[in-house]
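Possible regression after last week's pipeline update?

I re-ran a chain I had predicted before the update to compare outputs. Posting the input and the new output here so someone can diff against the archived version. Not blocking, just want to make sure nothing changed silently.
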Amino acid sequence: MTSPLDAYGLPSDVLVWQAVLLTVISFAVGILGGFVGLALGTMRLPALLLLGAAPSLAGGTNIIVSTSSALLGSIRHLQDGRVVWRLAAVVGIPSMVGAFIGGFASRWAPDALLVSVVGVLVFWQGIELLLMVRGGVERAGGAARASPQPPVVTIRSARGLAGSGIGLGVGLLGGAVGLILGSMRLPAMIRVMGIDPRTAAGTNLMIGFGMGAMGWIGHVAQGRVDYPMAALMSAAAMFGSYLGAQLTGRVNLSKLVGSMGAVLLVIGVLLVWRGLVWSAAP
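New output (post-update):
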């Protein structure tokens, strides 16, 4: 069936009611993503596929929406002092290098297995963050404070090296499976590097924007984008992400880290499901 959007010169396989629902979902996911510091494309992609987007276009559309959402959310975090450029460079540059290399290596990677493994790891990291809340966020490597303002970040050489290694590894894996994988970087910055959760959220979202901006170029060049849906969902996601980022500095750390943990649990389940679907495909 032809979408009514065709009448306006905007070819799309998504019907109007589906477009409206996807826009609302994108707004809600944007709020949650801006709040916890994740682009959350892993949540939008299943919605796109379930509500009529062609699989060949869903990935490219989703990464554009995720990048747009991460951009405005990052700006809000930056305005509130939750983006640390040195931390973004230490973790983000190796992530981008890894993603570039991983993209070339993707032809040899067993996608279904890798995505399932990532899902299990993300799920476990969600459990760890929830356990961290239960044990007291203030015990997490000195990362948390009662003040709503993020602390000054000091990156010691050992933790900086660990962060760069994690960024490179996550980038390699993400490039191989076509995901930004901020859901793996975020808990690593909190647990391994001892970064304040608010600062980790803002900086991780900025890294996600950088990686997403690199990732969508190939999709656009090959025409694998539903532009009407990308425009509608991006506008909603950007507004939602900006609002969500405002909430990050207004809630106590236990609620923030608990929300991060709950989101990671959901993402982990979605990734395992995606891996199982791929493995069952002929």
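Follow-up from reviewer: compared with the archived run. The longest helix spans residues 253-280. Marking as no regression found.
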